[in-house]
Amino acid sequence: MSREVLSPPVQTMSQNRRYRVNVVHEDFGGAKWNGQNKRAKGENKAYQETDLYADDDDEEDPAATRIEETPNGDFKLALHVPKSFYGGLIGMKGSTKRRIEEETRTEIYVPRQNERSNDVVIKAKQRSQVCAALRQIRHLLASLRKKMKPTHFLAVALNTGEVQQRFVELKRNILEAQLPGIDEELFISERCIHLTLGVYVLLDDDERQRALNELEACRQFLADLKTPFDMKVNGLEIMNDDPSSTRVLYGRIESSDLQKFADKCLAHFQTTGLCATDNNDRESIKLHMTVMNNRYRKEAMKSGNSFDAREILKRFGDFDFGSAECQDVHLCVLKSRGEDEFYKISGSLKF
C-alpha cells in the first residue's frame, strides 16, 4: 500500500462520500494494535519505541557500566531500587512493569517485599534494550520521588553560644508580651535551631550512604573559601508578604562565603536525583534560621494555618542574634531527636 502522504488511499462510501484509509504498517506494530494476539502464536512482536538516544548516552548512567553478558549471549543488569518504589514500578496489576517490558523488549524482575535483595534485575537479548529499560526506570523513579515527603536535610547547627542565648531571650520577650494568637508551641526548640542547606528523599541505607558520599564530594567547593564560615544572624523576616497571616518567622543570616558554598552544594545534589521537589525547583539557598512556624503547633491547638506576626515585627524586627561560626555541615533526619536533643545526625562534613 502507498505511503505517499499527499495522495493516501481513499474509500468511496454512499452518497459520494470519500474517506481516507489510515494505513498501519507492520513496522509500527500494526498487527498488535489491530487486536491480533501474537502471543497466542508464540511470538512477541510488541511495539518497541524508537530509542532516540541509542547507545550515545549509555555511559552517562553509572549503572550501565555494570551490564553483564550472560553465558547464553543475553545481557543482564542488577539495579539497586529502594523497596518504597516497588509499588510504583510494578503498577496496578503489573501494568507499569509490563509496559516497560513490552516497549523495551526486556524481562524485569522485581523482588518481593520479604526478600533481602533490593536489586531489580533487567534481562534482554541486546545491551541497548537493557539501557532503554534502565532509562525508563530512572525516569519513573524520579517522578515517584517527587511525590514523596522529604526524609533528611543538610543543616548547620546554631544551637550553642551567643545565637542560642539570644534566641531564648527573644522567645521570652515575645511570650511575655502576651500577643493575641501567639503561644510557645509556635517556637522551634532552642536545642534545634539551625540553618537548612538542602532537603532530600533518602529511602534506605544505600541512599543515605550515597548522600554522605555526595556531601563529601562537596568538599571541593571549599578550596577558594575561607573556613570556618562567619555568620551574622540579625533581623526578623517572614516567608510570605502578609505579616498578618504568616506561617514562618525567621532570623536573617548573612555570610557571603557560606552562601557560595550552599549554592554549589545545591547544584551538585540536584544532579544526584536525591533531592526533594522543593530543592529541584530552586536556584539558590535562602540562608535563614527558623524562629516560629505554624507547623510546630499540635493539630488540636491550631487556629487556622497562620499567625499574626505584625506586632512581633514592629517590636522585634531588628533583633540581633549575634554571630556564629560554621565548622561543619550535618546530614540530619527530619522530625527526629538525637542524644543532645538536636536532630539525629547520619553523618557530617567537617571543615
Automatic annotation (TrEMBL):
What InterPro entries does the record tag this protein with? AKAP7-like_phosphoesterase (IPR019510), ASCC1 (IPR009210), Cyclic_Pdiesterase (IPR009097), KH-I_ASCC1 (IPR047538), KH_dom (IPR004087), KH_dom_type_1 (IPR004088), KH_dom_type_1_sf (IPR036612)
Name this polypeptide is given: Activating signal cointegrator 1 complex subunit 1
The record's annotation in CDD domains points to: KH-I_ASCC1
Task: Please give the SUPFAM superfamilies that the UniProt record associates with this protein.
Answer: Eukaryotic type KH-domain (KH-domain type I), LigT-like
Keyword match Nuclease: no
Region described as Disordered: 30-62
Acidic residues compositional bias: what residue ranges?
52-62
What species is given as this protein's source?
Drosophila rhopaloa
Q: Looking at the keywords, is RNA-binding present?
A: yes
Task: Please state the span of the N-terminal signal peptide per the UniProt entry.
Answer: none
Task: Name the Gene Ontology biological process terms.
Answer: DNA alkylation repair; regulation of DNA-templated transcription
Q: Which gene encodes it?
A: LOC108040628
Q: Name one GO molecular function term.
A: RNA binding
One GO CC annotation: nucleus
Question: Keyword annotations for this protein?
Answer: RNA-binding
| PANTHER family membership | ACTIVATING SIGNAL COINTEGRATOR 1 COMPLEX SUBUNIT 1
**Span of domain K Homology:** 73-142
